[in-house]
Structures are given as C-alpha cells and as structure tokens.
Amino acid sequence: MRDFLIAGNWKLNGSSAANEALIAGIVAGVPGGSGFSLLVCPPYPYVAAVAAQVAGSAVSVGAQNVSEHESGAYTGEVAASMLADIGCEYVIVGHSERRAIYGESSFQVAAKFQAAQAAGIVPILCVGETLEEREAGTTESVVDYQLGAVLDAAGIGAFARAVVAYEPVWAIGTGMTATPEQAQDVHKHIRAQLSAKDAGIAAGVQILYGGSMKGENAAGLLAMPDIDGGLIGGASLKAKDFLAIAEAAAQS
Ligand code: PGA
Description:
The chain is of the alpha/beta class. About 45% of the residues lie in helices and about 15% in strands. The protein has helices spanning about 15-30, 45-55, 80-85, 95-100, 105-120, 130-135, 140-155, 180-195, 200-205, 215-220, 240-250; strands at about 5-10, 35-40, 60-65, 90-95, 120-125, 165, 205-210, 230.
C-alpha cells in the first residue's frame, strides 16, 4: 500500500560535471516496475540544474535544508518558495548533522517542516538517537521528542504530506547499519506514535531508514513491514551503488 522512496542525500559533495554524470547514470539505470520512486538531494546551487536534467524521468529532486523564514533579512538563507520555484519537490529537515553541527532545535526543525509544506514541498523529517542515547535505553523517548515537536507545531494532518526518516546517528557514515530488526522496532514505534493521533494518516506515511544503507543490506531492511525506503548518504554518490538499492526496492 505504501510505495518505497529511495532518496539520495548528497550532503556537501558534487560539482556540475560530477552531478551530470551521476544523474545520467541513475536515469539510464532506473529499474523497471512500479511501487517505488527515486529522489536525489544535491547541495542548493545544483538543485535547479539537476531538476532540469531529471525532468521527464522517474527521478525527483529535493534539497537538504530550508529556511524557516519566508523572506527578509536572513543573510545566507534559502526560502521554501525559492526551492519550489526551481523544481524542488522534497526537502530534508532535521538531519542529525544540522541538529548537531548547526545547533538546530526540534522547534526550529518544526518551523522548517511547516515552511516547506506552506510552499508545497514535502518535508522529510529526520529523527534518531545517538549511540549514548541508545545505550542509555532512551531511543524511543528521543524519537518521541523529535517527532512530538513537529506534531505539536504542525498537527497530525500535516503528516499526510510528509515523510519521516529514522536515522540512528551511530549508523550514519560509520558502516554500522542498524539490523533490520533494530530499525523495524523504531519504525513501528514511530508509526504507533502517529497512529495514536490518526491511524489512517499513520498507515500512509512513508518511514525511511537511513544510516549506512547500501546494496548489500537494502533488501533485508526493505523487507521489514514498517520500512518504506531509504535516505542514503555515501551510497548515493555512485550511480551503481544507488541503483543497487533502487533495485532492491523494485524487487521488494
Ligand atoms: P550514510 O548517510 O548513508 O552515509 O550513512 C545517511 C544520511 O546521513 O542521510
């Protein structure tokens, strides 16, 4: 009932030439079949060019961040309306790197989530615990808090047009993937949190897993009932690696 979404988070990587080659490779290799969609999230300066290059293909474009503000004196910021204007359909909000390195609070993340939706862009809300939090047994309360801030601000209705990504911080860029069971436990918990507010909306929300996902572990993760795709960093930078995950989704 829920399609898979395989999303590439390119982070701070790329150049015009490298992106063009990467997109050409991805577009040429999109697996046949249905039940999944592909998304790439390049750095801001490349969003428009990538949007033009993927136009008419099965690949969509997103951004990695957005301002919570609409316009005005916010030097260096990019508004959701600007992203929509250049063909951006999704935006990642609350990635753990933004929370940890740039000090984004869950309230700011909620404001970004709402700003994206106000411009017609689908937010991909990232949540996840650190290793210390997992070892302290607080994974569920951390995720509840991060999700709760957005639920309080935007309401459950907003999740009819949103994606959630569970990204355990200890699995990001470390090669240490959560096991399918570990991920499924948290995905199930997230869906239950949403379901407590509205079962119908919760049943439709795509919940992606992120954290060292690659071709070799994708099928096992995607086989889990509450895992609806992936948010992929390292393995999204080579067409062959990204397509291996897309292939796993196509066959799941
Ligand atoms: P990774 O990154 O796939 O390189 O672990 C995932 C992410 O940070 O979104």
